[in-house]
Write a structure and sequence with these properties.
Layout: H1 3-33, H2 38-41, H3 55-70, H4 74-77, H5 97-128, H6 132-152, H7 160-169, H8 173-180, H9 183-190, H10 194-214
Helix pairs in contact: 1-3, 1-5, 1-6, 5-6, 5-7, 6-10
């Protein structure tokens, strides 16, 4: 067991929990603003992680991936993906069906960007104060948040990008539901494709480099 890899993995896991919380809160908050109070009634318009954690997707699988990586099984860990508890949205209650569905969908990724901006601001202050541990933590938060931002934009169900793409190409709800039945398996295959992984990595690195320039980091 590589303790250094384990420590880094657990630190990254804590970042992921915070990012998932902010992401799902964004969906829930925007749905409430657009007329659907389903998520609010279920207590999802909150930044309390407990409301957004899925036992399997947020706890068991991510921690399994961390321990597998620390044990030298990074290849197996690469097949594991996690998720938060989906925010229920009743599209029929939205004031403007298509526009608001897109707004609710993109509110999650928007929170990823917001969290990255906050992390960079805190990191910049910590850098000036020579608080190196906080600088490292905020950089990790920024990288993970931006990576998950681009990851969620992939046009594969159940990721947010697929819901936006559905409206762009005019796909019907029934056709989308049929595709979504196989989405999880398509996603696992897609993230094993080198071009997809390299594209996500490049987009993440470029976005973080831009944020560092923005904050004179």
């Amino acid at each position: 067991m590589n303790l250094e890899v384990l420590a880094q993995g657990l630190s990254g896991y804590l970042c992921v929990v915070l990012i998932i919380t902010a992401h799902e809160f964004g969906h829930a908050w925007m749905a409430s603003r657009c007329g659907d109070d389903t998520a609010r009634m279920l207590g999802r318009v909150t930044l309390n992680p407990a409301a957004h954690i899925d036992t399997l997707g947020t706890v068991i699988l991510p921690l399994l991936a961390v321990f597998l990586s620390a044990s030298g099984n990074a290849g197996v860990a690469g097949f594991i993906i996690g998720w938060g508890k989906p925010v229920p949205v009743n599209i029929g209650r939205l004031r403007h069906r298509v526009r608001d569905d897109i707004l609710v969908t993109m509110a999650g990724p928007a929170m990823n960007i917001a969290l990255a901006l906050v992390a960079m601001l805190v990191g910049r202050i910590a850098l000036a104060a020579e608080m190196n541990l906080i600088v490292e933590a905020t950089m990790m938060m920024t990288f993970i948040s931006m990576f998950l931002f681009f990851f969620n934009l992939l046009p594969i169900p159940p990721l947010d990008g697929s819901r936006v793409m559905r409206h762009v190409i005019g796909m019907g709800e029934e056709a989308y539901a049929n595709l979504a039945r196989y989405g999880f398996f398509i996603l696992i295959v897609a993230i094993q494709i080198p071009a997809v992984r390299e594209g996500l990595g490049m987009a993440t690195r470029l976005s973080v480099a831009f944020l560092r320039l923005l904050f004179f980091y």
